[in-house]
Amino acid sequence: MTPMNQRDAADSFAGKAVLVSGATSGIGAASALAFARRGAHVAIVGRDEKRGGEVSRACAAFGVKTPFLAADLARPSEVRRMVEFTVDTLGALDIAFNNAGFQEPRAPLADQPDEVFERVFDTNVKSLFHAMKAELAVMLPRGKGVIVNNASVSGVRNPNPGLSLYAASKAAALALTRAAAMEYAPAGIRINAVSPGRIVTPMMLASKIADMGAVAAGLPLRRMGKAEEVAEAVVWLASDAASFVVGHNLCVDGGFLSQ
Q: Is the whole model's pTM more than 0.90, yes or no?
């Protein structure tokens, strides 16, 4: 087998069953499309039924199964239902990209109400805990599987005044990812994280950054990132090309954390 053929094989997801949460827009939608383009069947999960249907149809154009489930993943019962839905509709669960997230309205820490704290941590941490529990329950009997969690550069270094809860929740998500990766690697399950930074998504646009041009100019690449660029990192972490990568946090940030 030639090196090129080896790369092609590692890049193929033909017939794989993939779960993508938070898949109705931004990084989740781009990742669902990236997996479908490579031949994976993709369970698409999100809160917005209209956009979920649009993503499902776009993925189905690649000739794969693309069932959509509307769910609020801040609720543990909905998280468990998401995994059951994937197995019921696709027959298996080979790869999970836990991408659902919530960012609080920008405000100083002392001004954040308790219910906002609960929403941020329910979605970004508690939901991730329940998702991995349910996914591992399916993967462990098979002795294989891949989980990729969407964290954030804010979990490593918080550059955003007014978003302290989001930063703290993403730091917790990274710690949870690393701990779980060490626990389940001997069982044949690889767990890693991707940490986007300065990516143009609906969540970033909603955060009301005053001057996007100035933010872009402050990065080594002098531009903002695209959701599709994060999706390629997710796909690589899930692929056989990353077969020796465990407990890693892959930062897709245009060099932000290196400054």
A: yes
